[in-house]
Description:
This protein is α/β, with parallel strands linked by helices. The chain has helices spanning about 15-30, 60-65, 65-70, 80-85, 105; strands at about 5, 35-40, 70-80, 95-100, 110-115.
Amino acid sequence: xxxxxxxxxxxxxxxxxxxxxxxxxxxxxxxxxxxxxxxxxxxxxxxxxxxxxxxxxxxxxxxxxxxxxxxxxxxxxxxxxxxxxxxxxxxxxxxxxxxxxxxxxxxxxxxxxxx
Length: 115
């Protein structure tokens, strides 16, 4: 059973993204193949050089750095969302891969979850 978890909310101001990360890390800890797809405002989770201390938050960048440790296989960045937010691959975390989101992408997974 492989799982794709879609994060489409900004990293700060809403807890659903952090809950999605917790779910991904929990599944991966039990040897379930998990990938994360960042779409819409969720693409900002992958933005390199975040400084959330000014708003009293922990860095999403640090959370995502732990993804390989937990066994999360892929950090996928929606190409269209990156374009919408004027982000290039160089501005994203090194582990991120730009992907074109099409139905074929979703069909690669047994389960797709979006909170």
